[in-house]
Amino acid sequence: MSQQTVNGVPSRGKVLTLDNMNPNVKRVEYAVRGPIVQRAVQIEKELKEGVKKPFSEVIKANIGDAHAMGQKPITFLRQVLALCSYPELLEDNKFPEDAKKRAKRILQACGGHSIGAYSASQGIECVRQDVARYIEKRDGGISSNPDNIYLSTGASDAIVTMLKLLVCGEGRDRTGVMISIPQYPLYSAALADLGAVQVSYYLDEDKCWSLDVAELRRSLNAARQHCNPRVLCIINPGNPTGTSVVASVCEMKQFCHFLSPCVYQDNVYAEGCKFHSFKKVLFEMGPEYSSTVEMASFHSTSKCYMGECGFRGGYMEIINMDPEVKAQLTKLVSVRLCPPVPGQALLDLVVNPPQPDEPSYTTFMKERTVVLADLAEKARLTEQIFNKVPGITCNPVQGAMYTFPRITLSQKAIDKAKEEGQVPDMFYCMKLLEEEGICLVPGSGFGQREGTFHFRMTILPPTEKLKVVLHKISEFHLRFTQEFS
Ligand SMILES: Cc1ncc(COP(=O)(O)O)c(C=O)c1O
């Protein structure tokens, strides 16, 4: 047999091929940056090259990235980070004294007094102390131990670390992790990567995407037939559904572990709705729960009013974890040395913002309030505009920074999508992208009930731009419906 050559040199077959690579990695899917986003990037390049399109820019409403959508950084956060990054600025009198004080405190806590040095693997001690104090204040005085706080590279890293710790067993003993449908695809992707069993429970779209305990029980009982469901994950407030989960958590004791990502804890807009931490709920349920339910909750610098997702700051708090397992967790996080130190510094400012007697307080509060008030207004506008369109049904955006409206697609549209080799909502979103330059994520990337179709859109674009986006989607929907009627 003749040997293949490349430029005259005999070529050796690849050692790593699709057939022999880790099969779990091939099962990983992450719609938020999937094929639709790749096409959006390609269209942006085509626009730059002068290709004529019916629009002049691509609006990427596919991801919760506030700064990419034009949100300005909060002054105090960036002042302290600038001072930490370039301590010579501590001599500059343009910086307020409280920002300097904070920067000095953080620098002193850093190895070598520089944010360029590694920190302890669990995170800088004084930052963990500040996180614990923040949690105590948030939860009305329920104590939090800095030893139970682990700083992380955004929330994603901590969530994956916790899942790693939890997954074990083979066959029917394999760990099952209950996640909501729709869900944020980090969870399904991490479960696929780790070879864990995804156990889906459905949120009730007709009741504003609420969590139904009977559905949790159904899903748990069904899962027991084929795996070992040990973990319940509840995203609160929800992504992609934009709803604020107010759940009865009496069922929680059935689970060995409870994961509570609450990266949107400041993003609650609906009147009468308030963020409830599950830790607080546990303590309100009494010591039978608060001293036994093993729980990990997660927060991040990526969302809320700061939107500083590029800094990759975050933390997790664990409660009731077996001390020997905790030692394993500490060992596991030490393998990646430490989370980014600038992200830790930023997190410190988020959990310990300027106080009323400090010079930066007024500006800080003004900037924070404007961002959150704008988001609340955009949440309201989104629901209002979409619900005027026949064929789009949009639940109130009570929290987080997304809407997940239901779209009615005709059989003709569904058949056409099939002909094109696409799932129907991908077909819809691709067509929207090609015709209007708006990039959304198809609902199928988050999971949805069979026969229903949705898309996820962030409400982050500036208000005037958001209005244009909402109207363009509305007009597109009417055109699409007519084309496939
Ligand atoms: C529910 C949920 N968990 C985790 C994350 C990850 O956030 P981070 O940027 O902190 O890794 C996100 C980001 O969108 C999210 O929506």
TrEMBL record:
Annotated signal sequence range: none
Domain Aminotransferase class I/classII large: start-end pairs: 80-473
Spell out where the chain crosses the membrane. Answer: none
**Top enzyme category:** transferase
Q: What is its EC number?
A: 2.6.1.2
State the pathway, as annotated in the record.
Amino-acid degradation; L-alanine degradation via transaminase pathway; pyruvate from L-alanine: step 1/1
Keywords (alphabetical) are: Acetylation, Aminotransferase, Cytoplasm, Phosphoprotein, Pyridoxal phosphate, Transferase
The record's section on Pfam families has: Aminotran_1_2 (PF00155)
> What's one GO BP annotation on this UniProt entry?
L-alanine catabolic process
User: What subcellular compartments does it reside in?
Assistant: Cytoplasm
* Gene Ontology terms for molecular function: L-alanine:2-oxoglutarate aminotransferase activity; pyridoxal phosphate binding
The record's comment on protein family reads: Belongs to the class-I pyridoxal-phosphate-dependent aminotransferase family. Alanine aminotransferase subfamily.
The UniProt function text for this chain reads: Catalyzes the reversible transamination between alanine and 2-oxoglutarate to form pyruvate and glutamate. Participates in cellular nitrogen metabolism and also in liver gluconeogenesis starting with precursors transported from skeletal muscles.
Record note on quaternary structure: Homodimer.
Q: What's the protein called, per UniProt? A: Alanine aminotransferase 1
Q: What organism does the UniProt record list as the source?
A: Dicentrarchus labrax (European seabass)
What lineage is this protein's organism placed in? Eukaryota, Metazoa, Chordata, Craniata, Vertebrata
